[in-house]
Structures are given as C-alpha cells and as structure tokens.
C-alpha cells in the first residue's frame, strides 16, 4: 500500500498478534500506525460511495457483476474523482464471505491461470494497487545517450575490416558481399553513441597492435 | 509465478533452508520442485537471449537503460516470440549487485512513490508477472443480465407513485415536477432486468398492503 501511495488502511476484526507484528514492518510504519480498526464491514465502508470486493475466480459469486482487474481499475479511478472507494480483501485463508460481499457494488478478480487461482493476500493487494496507479501512457525509455550515427557505424565498419585484413580473416577475399555483411552486422548491434566510441577505441587499439606485429615481422 | 503461469524458476546460490521451506508452500509445489539451481548468474541465464534486471529506482544504475514496467513488459513480450527471456531479481535485502546487472540487457522498475520505493520481493515478482500477462483489451463486464428496459423502469415509477399516494407522501401534491423527479431517480438506479422485477414485486406488495389498510379503515 505504501509503495503505491494508498495510505488509508482499515481493518475489520484484525488478529491482534499479526497486526502488532505488521506494525513493525520496515518502511510501512505510517500506514499501519494510522490504520483504523472496525468491528464490522458495514462500519468500515460506511463513508465509501463505492465498495469493490476482491475474489479469486474459483469463488465466483454470481450475485455480483465480476470485473477483471484491467477493466475494473478504470471504473474505480473514475469513481475516485467523485468520492471515496473501498477495495475490500478477505482473509488469506477464506477470502470474503457472502455477507462481506453483500456490502460490495461489484467484484473484481486478478486474472490467473485456472490451475492456480488462489493468490497470496499481500501479492494480490500489490497487484491491484499497481494496476490502479498504472500509467498506460508510460513512454518507452530509448536508453541513455542517442543511437550511433551512420558515420560512427561506418567508422566501426572500416576499422573492423582493417583489423580483419591484418588478421588474414579468410572470408575477406572469398566473398564479394562480405563488406556489406559486416556493415549490416554493425548496424544490428543498435549501438548508442557512447558504446560506439568505446568499441571503436578497442578496435583501433587491436589494429595498432596487429600492424605493429606486422612491422616487427617484416 | 504459478498464478500467472511462469513455471521456470532458476535460483542462483539459494539459501537452502528458505528454499526447502518454500518448496512446501501450498499450490506452488510444481514450480519449486522443478526449480533449477545454479552457482552463478552467468550459468543461470546462459540460454536466454534477453536478460532483464529489476531494480528499485533508488538503486538506479546509470550504466543501463531503465524502463518503467508498463513500457518494459511489451518489449519482453515481443522478445518472447523469438527466444527465451530471463527476468532477474536480486535478494530481498540487497537487490541486484553491479556484477549481476552486467549480465542484463536493460533494467526495469516498478513505479512506486519516491518516499517508499523498496518493495517486498514476492510482491515485486507478482506485479511484474501480472503486467507480463496483462490483457490491455480486457472488456468491461456489463454485469449479469441486461439493463432494465424503459418499460420496466416506467412500471417501477408507476407503482412507486401509487405507493407514495397511498402513503400520503407530502411532496406529491406540492410539486408539479415530482413525477419526473421520481422517473429520473429510478433511471439513475441503473437496474438490471432481474433487480427491476425484484424491486417491482416488493413495491407491489407494499401497495397491496397499503390499499388493504385503506379499505380496512374506510
């Protein structure tokens, strides 16, 4: 809850030993210190204008409309603009009872595989709150730096060919298309500017050493 | 992992006591029984053509490109069509070391609030795997049954007005627009067909009782 910025925890009849242990969890102190205790679900959700219950598909209750998390989250976000919403989770072992569910406007489930639909409670809460905060428009990070220019790629291609020539790489003389194959290979590396310079520096050093050895031999 | 259908767990130097305890977890037996142990990250990811490391933003490592989970997941899904991918998680306490990260093509983080970026390991894994299986096109479930027809809403409106008349509801005679206000109220209930019938039955019973009392009085 604290990771995703949901700071209002309400507990209905918590098991006090577990609750006191949880209060000592690293980093979550504020959420737990401010958690409110209630004796009934009705009291806990009294000021909420939307109550969404969570359930594993295996316990599907046909009395309520059931939404997949991906579809339910936008409905909750829309509601939050107008009033408070409670997301209701049952106990780890039994989930929500029919009585608990009668306080819910609708139910939501996390899509899991049929063979294993029962989730760890903490993981289920994390997944639901992640989805509520999810940013569908998060841009893909193109990576640090900018892609290497064609000129940089060409320099790498040139130095690599020089190194191969100095190493008597066999295909160099037998294949007419080898030059193009090397250029395409270097392009496929999707090098960033910094990495292109780094690679070029290494290749130049190799070429220098190869040529020095050549001179020493002759 | 088992909830979301990721069945290949690889462990690098696991703490054996914890590993043996985990093997006994309810429902996850197959994933753990088939888990493979390795001595180094290099061996664990040897056959993977994409290795994505996970990190909290607080430990951001500028040597790598860093993607938000929402943006990174589609890149991973695209890669999975062509070859195996490893999603690498560090230990609960320390996360991935720089040495571990050097085996990664890029890094991914779960967007959390700045004040609390360090996540529970099991919750972080659940959130990442949920996102990998997430269906952006999941349709909103319109609920069981179909919305009540206008005719059904009109019948409820009629019977409700009859009940109010029989109850001497004061506004009935003082406001010309009361009729429309009741109709709009009934529309706002967004009743499903079944619920509309249920409500109509209750109202008809109330009207029956009110009229019977009336007859008994007269």
Describe the structure.
The structure is a homodimer of 218-residue chains. With 218 residues, chain A is α/β, with parallel strands linked by helices. The first copy, chain A, has helices at 16-23, 29-33, 41-44, 69-80, 98-101, 121-133, 150-166, 171-174, 178-188, 193-217, and strands at residues 10-12, 36-38, 50-54, 66-68, 85-88, 106-109. In chain A, the strands form two sheets. In chain A, strands 4-6-3-5 form a four-stranded parallel β-sheet, covered by helices on one side. In chain A, strands 1-2 form a two-stranded parallel sheet. In chain A, helix 7 (150-166) packs across helix 9 and helix 7 (150-166) runs parallel beside helix 10 (193-217). The model of chain A has no long low-confidence stretch (mean pLDDT 86). At the A-B interface, strand 4, helix 4 and helix 6 of A face strand 4, helix 4 and helix 6 of B.
